[in-house]
Design a protein that fits this description.
About 80% of the residues lie in helices and about 0% in strands. With about 100 residues, the chain is mostly helical. It has one domain: Serine Threonine Protein Phosphatase 5, Tetratricopeptide repeat (Alpha Horseshoe), CATH 1.25.40.10. The chain starts with a helix and ends with a helix.
C-alpha cells in the first residue's frame, strides 16, 4: 500500500499525469483492485488516446475479467494508435496479444 499512497500523493499535485495514473493502475492490479485499475486506464485512454502503453494493460485486465469483446476492442484501438504513432514495438505486442485472444 505504501507505493499506492505515494502515487496518490504525487497525483494530488498533478492529477492528469498519465505516467502516474498508469503506474497506480498497475499497482491496483497487483492487489486485485481491478475496477479501480480499469477506471484509471479508461480515463487515460479517453483523455490521451496516444498513451499507447495503457491499451495493452487495459485489454489484458479485461481478458482477466472475462470481458473478451471489450478486450478485443481495446487491442484494436491500441493497434490503430500504435500504427498512427509509428510505434512498431507496441503495435507488435498488441497484435500478438490480440491474435492469442482471437485465434
Amino acid at each position: 500500500m505504501e507505493r499506492i499512497d505515494k502515487l496518490k500523493a504525487f497525483l494530488q499535485a498533478t492529477p492528469k499525469d498519465n505516467f502516474l495514473r498508469h503506474a497506480l493502475a498497475l499497482e491496483y492490479i497487483k492487489i486485485e483492485e481491478n475496477l479501480q485499475a480499469r477506471v484509471l486506464f479508461e480515463d487515460i485512454l479517453t483523455e490521451s488516446p496516444d498513451y499507447i502503453g495503457s491499451y495493452y494493460h487495459l485489454a489484458k485486465l479485461l481478458e482477466k475479467l472475462e470481458q473478451t469483446d471489450l478486450a478485443i476492442k481495446w487491442y484494436e484501438q491500441g493497434m490503430q494508435a500504435a500504427k498512427k504513432a509509428k510505434d512498431n514495438h507496441a503495435y507488435n505486442e498488441l497484435q500478438a496479444a490480440y491474435e492469442d485472444l482471437v485465434y
